[in-house]
Structures are given as C-alpha cells and as structure tokens.
C-alpha cells in the first residue's frame, strides 16, 4: 500500500500497521471503503514468539 504524508508529518517507523476504525467510511452504494484522505494507522505489536512459520 502506498501512503502519502501530510506536509511536515513524521514518517511511520518500519513495522506492521492496521487502519484505525476512524479510517473507514461507507460509500454511496453502502460498501465499506478506506478514506482517501485522513487515514490513521495503528501500529501492531507482534512479538517474535507469536510468529509461527
């Protein structure tokens, strides 16, 4: 996913993120979509032991 930052916004640190619930909107057809502008991301804290491959 390509993210754009607002002017003077600090870059996100490397990691795994999920969109915050405020980043979703209902479109004209009743479908769920991500907001084009003003998307907020939340970092996900994944411990190394939780990753099983």
TrEMBL record:
One Pfam family from the record: Phage_DNA_bind
Organism superkingdom: Bacteria
Biological process, per Gene Ontology: DNA replication
Keyword DNA-binding: yes
Cited InterPro entries: NA-bd_OB-fold, Phage_M13_G5P_DNA-bd
Alphabetized UniProt keyword annotations: DNA replication, DNA-binding
Signal peptide positions (record): none
GO molecular function terms listed in the Swiss-Prot or TrEMBL record: single-stranded DNA binding
The protein's name: Single-stranded DNA-binding protein
Source organism of this protein record: Vibrio ziniensis
């Amino acid at each position: 996913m390509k993210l754009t930052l607002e002017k003077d916004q600090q870059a996100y640190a490397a990691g795994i993120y999920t969109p915050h619930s405020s980043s979703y909107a209902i479109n004209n057809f009743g479908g769920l979509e991500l907001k084009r502008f003003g998307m907020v991301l939340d970092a996900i804290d994944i411990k190394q032991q939780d990753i099983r491959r």
